[in-house]
Amino acid sequence: MGAMGGRNMRASFLALSPRFSLVGNGRTCPIGVGRGVSVALLASVLLSAAGCMPWESYDSVLARVPAGEFVDIEGQSVHIERAGAGETVLLLHGFGGSTFEWRKIMPGLAGSFDVLAVDLNGFGYTERPVAAEAYSPAGQLELVIRLLDRLGIQQVHVVGHSYGAGVALHLAARHPQRVRSLVIVDGVQELAQFGGLRVPAVLKPAARWYLGNVVLTTRNIRGALRDAVYDKTVVTADMVEGYLTRLRVEGFDLAFDGFLAPVADPLPLLELPEIEHPALLIWGEHDTVFDVSLAVEMADALPYAQLVRLQRSGHLPMEEEPEAFLRAVRTFLAARMEDAQR
Question: Percentage helix, strand, coil, to 5, in the chain?
């Protein structure tokens, strides 16, 4: 499962922008320009194209988004959404996602739980850190722990989707006392570590411009979302705008460099049989990013896991079948509450 999961983790990045190809078979590839284009010409293209697609300044984000949705963690503004009361359910989004992807799920859980969604480093309305290590798997895990400490939350039920599933699994394995139960949604343990992508320094400005002005556009995000779901009608203009707006935030260059930076001390693969938390796996039957066979393997490897396969979903079941998703999560969490009372 490890090797296959690793290949698919790289695919989770491409799922956000399926028409974008930066690297192929370990070789540096051209980014929208021919190999013979000179650096001078490339520079002139970038300069002439600069500003085609405006980025929202972070000051504008802070002025527009309610102040109560930000938590200061050692000088970094971290964006959260929180609702309800009771035991805490922590929601961790996928790569390219944000708290926005949980909008259909939070109200249905908030009647019984304290529901906490967070934007991880590089995504949503969380301030983009300067330090490259913040974008590493260890950096994302550290952000989650610091957030829980800052809010005084000792233990959570954690729900992780795709990239966020890797964070959730590492949270359970490395901080088992902080986790009551796990819900893994279309994701594997290998987090997206793009430090292996070789992008020459001279091409990084071109790559940044290409991503910002070609990949992160309404057309491409719509295409990426349609590729990720089973029922294409789920993808609406409001949905596309919701995902895109939270990606086009000042600091994208920092996140881009951070995700591509070499990972000095990568998190080792976990021994799944050693994760003894109760676990629920929710998987779209038609997921083309992480095949459902991975879910079967993971359910077999985790000691106390059950698998729910949603028949009309792809990679985004919380978007595609929110009622069935909520039903599965509520049933699972209700059983955990009963266990605690015995």
Answer: 50, 15, 35
